[in-house]
Specification:
This protein has nine helices and eleven strands. β3, α1 and β4 form a beta-alpha-beta unit.
């Protein structure tokens, strides 16, 4: 039986780092939303032993380094059956859009359907947490407030369809570990995360957008970002910022924004314009 899932990208509407936990991990407070840019992940049992990964992009690892492989290993814990995993990548790597975590979430959803359909969502998210901090959100999807290392999720009302995201990926790859090291080396200017959380819990997106921030922008130099923010704001964007540790940048627009001018503002960052995306209420979806 061959099963395919869409694995949706995520965007960080707000990202604050609130401390350092035992073991050196950082505690975070984040508002995350799934968007309709998706990889397609296909899982198929085979009669051969081991996990075989195929991908449409030549630079994606096809062995134990791939988080999709790690997801399969975490699901079975002991002896894995033979599996063929096919990754059709559309979410860019090194963008802060959780492309790898989304793929892992899709693998876990497919394996549950194949081997353990009675498994509760909470147990599947627990397995996902062992694979990566963003995987529980990618399983949950929609709009969530996240705390801890990102695994403590409070599901919220998904963003209304009147909003859309213009998204670009500058031609810069940012290493997440280096980004956190940069954060540790500076004194952060703290956003009003408590207020953002309060507004998010009420579903007041109009109220929270002016308060949203991504503290990684203080530690990572992304050429052209300040200009892009000004240009997009002038065109009516409600929020323009980097997602995750970068380097993708998105602008939140409603019907009052000049979307073509917003796109032009983002193009100043260079790289690839990923398109106009819509919020979606889930993280993975059966094809």
């Amino acid at each position: 039986m061959r099963i395919a899932y869409k694995a949706y990208a995520k965007l960080n509407l707000h990202l604050d780092i609130t401390g350092i936990l035992p073991g050196g991990y950082h505690s975070v407070a984040m508002l995350m939303q799934s968007a309709d840019l998706a990889d397609v992940v296909t899982v198929e049992p085979t009669r051969f032993s081991g996990v075989y990964i195929r991908c449409n992009l030549p630079y994606i690892p096809r062995d134990r380094r791939n988080i999709a492989w790690k997801a399969a290993a975490a699901f079975f814990e002991e002896e894995m059956p033979g599996l063929k995993i096919t990754l059709e990548k559309h979410i860019p790597s090194g963008a802060g859009m959780a492309g790898g975590s989304a793929d892992a979430a899709a693998v876990l959803a497919a394996l549950r359907e194949l081997y353990a359909p009675e498994m509760p969502d909470e147990e599947l998210r627990d397995i996902g947490m062992r694979v990566g901090a963003d995987v529980p959100f990618c399983l949950q999807g929609g709009c969530c407030w996240a705390e801890g290392v990102g695994e403590q999720l409070t599901p919220l009302q998904s963003m209304p369809p009147k909003y859309q995201f213009a998204v670009t990926k500058p031609d810069i790859h940012i290493n997440t570990a280096n980004a956190y090291a940069n954060i540790d080396a500076i004194e952060l200017m703290r956003p009003d995360t408590k207020r953002v959380r309060s507004l998010a819990l009420r579903g007041d997106f109009e109220g929270l957008f002016p308060l949203c921030a991504n503290v990684f922008e203080q530690a990572i130099e992304l050429p052209g970002l300040t200009h892009a923010k000004k240009a997009c704001g002038k065109a009516g964007a409600l929020l323009t910022q980097m997602t995750g540790s970068g380097s993708a940048v998105f602008a939140v627009c409603d019907n009052n924004a000049d979307i073509q001018q917003v796109q032009q503002g983002l193009l100043a960052l260079g790289g690839d314009f990923l398109g106009i995306l819509k919020p979606v209420p889930r993280g993975v979806e059966r094809c």
